[in-house]
Every structure is written in C-alpha cells, then in structure tokens.
Design a protein that fits this description.
The strands form two sheets. The chain has a seven-stranded mixed beta sheet with strand order 1-2-3-4-5-6-7. It has a seven-stranded mixed beta sheet with strand order 8-9-10-11-12-13-14, with no helix packed on it. The chain has nine helices and 14 strands. The chain has 281 residues and is of the alpha/beta class.
Length: 281
C-alpha cells in the first residue's frame, strides 16, 4: 500500500496522480495548478491553487489539514478548497482542532459546492460540477475548455464577408465551452444517468474499483462503487476519446485485471487506460 505516483498526458494537459481504493486518490494538473482530491496530502500537490474535493472520505480528503499546514510553512498563499457543502463544517472542526493542538491559526478558503455550479479558472478554462452517487454526499468535476467559434448564423458567409463584418465592428464569434476532462471520484455507475453530459467529455477519469467475482456487483453497489461487470455494459455509451480507469482495489492483481480487459473487443479496449499500470512518462 505504498503511495506511488504516475505522470501521463491527456491531450494538452499533464496529470500526476495516485489512486488505490481505500489508500489514497489525488490527481494534479500542473499547467492549471488544480487538483482532484488530495489523498493524504502528498508533496506533489502542495503548489496547487485550487483543490476540487469529490467527497469527505479520508482516502480522498484526509490530506486537507496537512496541505494547509505545509503550504503555510512554505509561505504559499491560502489555497481554495471546493468541497461538498456537507463536508465544510466538519472539515473546519478538524482544522480548528489541529490549530488548537499546534498553537497556530491557519488560513484557508473553503468553497462549499451545492448542485450544479461553474467556477472560472482561467481565460480558457472553467470547472463545472456534476452529481455523483456514493455512500456519502459527493460530486464530480468537469474541466470545460473555452474557445471562440464563428457564429452558427454566419457559417455560410464567405471569408471576405466575415472580414468586412469585423471591419465594421460586428461580432462574428461566440464563446463556447466544451467538456475536456471529467473526474468522478467514488460513485455508482448511475452517475451516467444523473450527468449524461459527462459521456461527451474528451477524457474521463472514473473509478472502477472491483473487477471479478472476488467482490460481487451487489457488494460493490452496497459500498457505493463501480464493478467492472457494470462498467462494460455501458462502455458503448461513452463518446470519450480515452477513459482512465482508477481507484482499483488492492485485492486484484494486475494480471487479474488484464484478464478481464482482454475479453473486450479491440476497438473498446484501445480507448481504455488502466491507472497506474498504463500511465507513465
């Protein structure tokens, strides 16, 4: 159960992360200085400005106090933590207790997440929430890429006509936001019904915790997780270029997981990335 990290690319973005069910999950995108979940508060996540927490379980959110402490020691500005609203007050109590133990008052910024909301990140990126279904209150996140596009009503005009409109000061473009990367955190498979827009993400990072008969589908569902046997029934629905499967249970060996993946048609298997085994630069 040692914490190891892998670095990989999804399109133009780099991800560094770790994810083992019950041990720790955290993924950082250094180009945007954001993180999905925080595991135990690992050093590679300290420079991040915005932390997006999916739910309050310790292997996903337990590192929040440690990150706050380490950033303070490093002289970094208080970070922003986006987290389900029901997690906010319990986490404030935890921070308060540590402040009392250490004789130091920490500064941090908690932003409670309620329902579907969008948070601006940069000129070209926003973060949008989507509902997930776990044993406790949870939320997923979609990184939205913003870009300019010629207005639909002007698609049939010539280049010369469009240039002339620009010269006259008319707006010929509109901003659109497209789902680039979605991150589920822990959830049951029904998140696909709660948030069907996630199926259109260019990249999807989702949990698939259990992989064979060692753990039944019913047991996986009881604990709010996805079983591979459920996942493969809905794989055809996903329009994603790549799907990263994370949060693997340590009860399964790499060979066992590869045995199940080998049953898939090549056209489906090539769209899947098994984390961490198939992630690394």
């Amino acid at each position: 159960n040692d914490i190891t990290t892998s670095v990989f690319k999804l399109g133009e973005l780099t991800l560094r992360g770790t994810s083992v069910a019950g041990v720790g999950t955290c993924f950082v995108i250094p180009e945007l200085k954001i993180a999905f979940d925080v595991a135990q508060g690992l050093p590679f996540s300290y420079p991040v400005n915005d932390y997006f927490i999916t739910h309050g379980h310790m292997d996903h959110a337990g590192g929040i106090p440690y990150i706050i402490s380490q950033r303070t020691l490093m002289g970094l500005k208080p970070a922003r933590f986006y987290l389900p609203a029901v997690v906010e007050q319990p986490m404030r109590k935890i921070i308060s207790t540590w402040s009392e133990l250490e004789g130091h008052e920490y500064k941090y910024d908690f932003l409670p997440v309620n329902g579907r909301v969008t948070f601006p990140l940069t000129k070209n990126w926003d973060m949008r929430t989507f509902p997930t279904l776990h044993r406790v209150s949870s939320t997923g996140y979609t990184l939205m890429q913003k870009r300019k596009k010629l207005k639909a009503a002007l698609q049939n005009l010539t280049q010369e006509q469009i240039v002339q409109m620009r010269r006259q000061g008319e707006a010929v473009e509109e901003e659109i936001a497209e789902p680039y990367l979605s991150f589920t955190g822990d959830t049951q498979i029904e998140f696909l019904d709660l948030a069907p827009e996630v199926k259109k993400s260019r990249f999807l990072i989702m949990e698939v915790t259990y992989w064979n008969e060692k753990k039944s589908v019913a047991s996986a569902r009881e604990w709010g997780h996805i079983h591979f046997f459920e996942f493969i029934k809905r794989l055809d629905e996903l329009e994603c270029e790549k799907v990263v499967l994370m949060h693997l249970s340590a009860r399964h060996s790499k060979a066992e997981i590869e045995f199940e993946l080998a049953k898939l048609p090549a056209s489906l298997r090539e769209r899947l990335i098994l984390f961490p085994y198939e992630c690394g630069l």
